Amino acid sequence: MLYRILLVCLFCLCSSADGSSVVRLSLPDIANHSGQVVRGKVASLQSYWTAAYGSRTIETKITLESVSYFKGQRSVSTLFEFTMPGGTVGDITMRIAGAPEFKQGEEWVLFLLPEWKSFPTVGLYQGAYQLVDGTVVDGNGVPVSNIDKDGFVISALGSPKLEGRARGASVQIQSSLKKLPADVFLAQVAAIANKSKPITLTRDAGKRIPADYTSVPLRKKQ
Question: In this predicted model, what pLDDT tens digit does every residue of 176-193 receive, in sequence order?
Answer without folding.
Answer: 568 899 999 999 999 999
